[in-house]
Amino acid sequence: MTSLANQPQTLLEQARAHNARTRRNQMISTVVRYGILAIVGFIMLYPLLWLVGASFKTNAEIFASPSFIPENPTLEGYQRGWDTSTRWNFGHFFLNTLWIIIPKTIGTAISATLVAYGFARFEFPFKKILFATVIATLLLPNVVTRIPQYLLFRDLGWLDTYLPLWVPSALAGDAFFVFMLIQFLRAIPRDMEEAARVDGANTIQTLVFIVIPMLAPAIISVCLFQFMWTMNDFLGPLIYISSVEKYPVSLALRLSLDVTEAFQWNQVLAMSALTLAPSLIVFFVAQRYFIEGISTGGVKG
C-alpha cells in the first residue's frame, strides 16, 4: 500500500526532472546557437569595423596593429581626405553621385514598372518572344555589351556626360528589375483591377491608383538595389566620364591612389567610410519594405 501511495509522487518527480533537463538542454542549445551566430557575424563584420576604425588612425598606425580600435584617434584622414588632391572637395563628388543616382533610380522605377505591368497583365503579339529576349539580356554578361554600348554612345555624342548612365535605366534596360516586378505582379490577384475597370478607370488610372500601391514594397526594393549598385558602380563612370569635375565618389576615391606613390591610406579609408554611409542609411531606413518586397516577389499566387 505504501509503494502504491508513493508511485504518483515518484512519477511527478520524474516528470519535473525530465522538464528541468529539457529546459536546460534547450538553454544550452540556444546559447551555443546564438554564440556561433555572434562569432560568425563578428567575423563577417570585422572588415567593415576595421575600415571605420582605421579611418581614425594615422597612416603609420594602420599597418602597426590589426586591431580596429585606434590607439590615438584622429580626424586627420577625414579632414585631408575631404579636401582631396583636386580643386574640388569630396562634397562636390558626392553631389555628382547623387546627380547620377536620383534620375537613374527614378527612371528605373518608372520604366521597369511600366514594362512589367505590360508583360504581366496584357496579351499582345510576340509577347513570349519579347519576354524571352528580356530574360536573355538578363543572362548576358555586362562585359559583352560594353564595347557596342560605348560605340553607340560615342556616335550619339554622349561621352563625358551622364546620359549613358541614365538612358538605359530610363528605358528599362535593367532586365533583373523587370523580371522581379513581373514575379511580384503575378502574386497579386486581379480582382481590384477588374473592379476599377468596371468603375470606369482606364489602364493608366488602374496602374497608378490600384497596382502601384500594392507594388510599393517591390518598387522600394528596386530603388534600393539601384541606389546601392549605382553608388558602387566604378566601371560605368570610368568608361563614359573623362572630366574630373563630373566624377562620382567611386572615381574620386581612385584619385587618392593615383596622385602620389606614398598612398595616404587613412584618407582613402576615411572617404571610403563616408561613401558607405548613404547606402547603409538608406538600407536600414527602408529595410522592412526591402525584405517584404524580396520575400513576396518570390511567391506566385
Automatic annotation (TrEMBL):
It holds the Pfam family BPD_transp_1. Belongs to the binding-protein-dependent transport system permease family. Its main location: membrane. One of its GO terms (biological process) is transmembrane transport. This is Sugar ABC transporter permease. SUPFAM superfamilies: MetI-like. It is a multi-pass membrane protein. Residues 94-286 form the ABC transmembrane type-1 domain. Coiled coil: none annotated. The chain crosses the membrane at residues 31-52, 93-117, 129-153, 165-185, 206-229, 265-286. It comes from Pelagibacterium lentulum. Keywords: Cell membrane, Membrane, Transmembrane, Transmembrane helix, Transport. One of its GO terms (cellular component) is plasma membrane.
